[in-house]
Amino acid sequence: MAEKITRINPEGLHKTPGYHHITVVEAGRTAHLAGQCPIGPDGAVVGAGDLDAQIDQVVANSMAALRAVGAGPEDVIRSVIYVLSDEQKVLGQAWARLVDSALGAAFTTASTLLGVAQLGFSDQLIEVDLTAAL
User: InterPro entries attached here (predicted)?
Assistant: First the structure.
């Protein structure tokens, strides 16, 4: 766990739906996770066409990756979420499901949510990129 993580929303910047504009870390080590995809243990994309099922798999994969380095969602200092959609409603639904998941604390930090045109695997609808302070 990080020695000290401070999350800040400075005056003069807009209010956020739960994330912080700035995350300051005073720690010696960080873990940069590869983008976590909705890929199951068999190497196949889980839940083709089902964003909720894919989010659940991304959460499970992210939790396993964090545990592997002795970290948890509260140690995440940066997140980037990529959703295969250009609809704000879909992006908002993905954000809400992630925030309400076991990984939810990861999204109280500096976070970016993007709608994209294509992701790396066929049928992939979401990917989450995390950095954690150790």
Answer: RutC-like_sf, YjgF/YER057c/UK114
pTM (predicted TM-score)? 0.87
* Antiparallel, parallel or unpaired: β 110-116 and 76-84: parallel
Q: Are 13 and 21 in contact (CB under 8 A)?
A: yes
Residue corresponding to tokens 């294509």: 118
CB 81 within 8 A of CB 95: yes
Question: d(Cα 11, Cα 4) in Å, to the nearest integer?
Answer: 22
Closest CA to 126 of 72, 67, 76, 79: 79
pLDDT value at 131 more than 50: yes
Enumerate domains of the chain plus CATH numbers. 4-133 (3.30.1330.40)
Q: How far is CA 38 from CA 21, 27, 53, 110, 134, in A?
A: 27, 30, 8, 22, 25
